[in-house]
Amino acid sequence: MTRNKLKEAAMRLFGEKGYDGTALSEIAKEVGVKTPAIYAFYESKEDLFMTVFREAMDSYNTFIQELSKGREKLSARESMYGILSRQYEFYRECPDASKFVLRYMVFPPVFLKETIEEAFLHSDERLTKLVGTLIVQGMEEGAIRDQKVQPLVDSFLNVMDGLSIQYFYYTSKEVYERKLNHVFETFWNGVRS
After folding, report:
1. Half-sphere exposure (CA, 13 Å, Cβ side) for 42?
2. Which residues are CB-contacts of 8 (< 8 A; sequence separation ≥ 6)?
């Protein structure tokens, strides 16, 4: 329980104040323990930070991948749109994790840059595999014209990245959803048969 509370407090504080702006003593105080208690669970501030980062990335991926349960009933188009919708739901339901991951993907602490990139690449591999499977499905359905899969996967992942930034720019659900719908239709019109 204390371990989870430490991770929650760390995610929020690292997300708000940055790595350098967050002291372990602040995290401990928020949880109601003394700073040395953190070391019962984590070797260092860096260990706590990377644990939170990896778990935030894993929770994002798991949330997105849950769409694939029962996906066999959906067309490739519906599934791909569903990924973008699930991403939006994740941002709305998990704002601390979303802010935390985005902040450190764009502005990682210099000494953790490589470690963060490695964690991100693991996440990216999972998404790449899912999106690639959907593109192939779309080709088999005749909805996507036959072409190389990887450029389409890369394009779709860039749509996801762009929408990630848009979410933090626009607080209006209507504006964000309009942008989501427009970018998806543009992508789909470009790849379809």
Report:
1. 22
2. 96
User: What is the sign, positive or negative, of the torsion defined by CA atoms of 62, 64, 65, 71?
Assistant: positive
Here the tokens at position 150 are 């990887």
User: Helices (DSSP H) in the chain: which residue ranges?
Assistant: 2-17, 24-31, 45-65, 76-93, 95-106, 113-141, 149-169, 173-191
Paired residues of 144 in beta bridges: 192
CA distance 154 to 43: 37
pTM for the whole structure: 0.85
Instruction: Kindly list the averaged pLDDT for each block of 10 residues, start to end, along the chain of length 193.
Output: 92 93 96 94 95 91 76 86 91 89 88 89 90 96 96 96 86 90 96 85
Q: What is the C-alpha R_g of the chain?
A: 19
Residue pair 166/176 in contact by the 8 Å Cβ criterion: yes
What domains, with CATH codes, occur in the chain? 45-191 (1.10.357.10)
| Token code pair at residue 1 | 């329980």
CB hemisphere CA count around 121 (13 angstroms): 6
The single-letter code of the amino acid at 75 is S
- Extract long-range pairs of 109-113: CB within 8 Å, 24+ residues apart: 109/19, 109/20, 112/19, 112/46, 112/49, 112/50
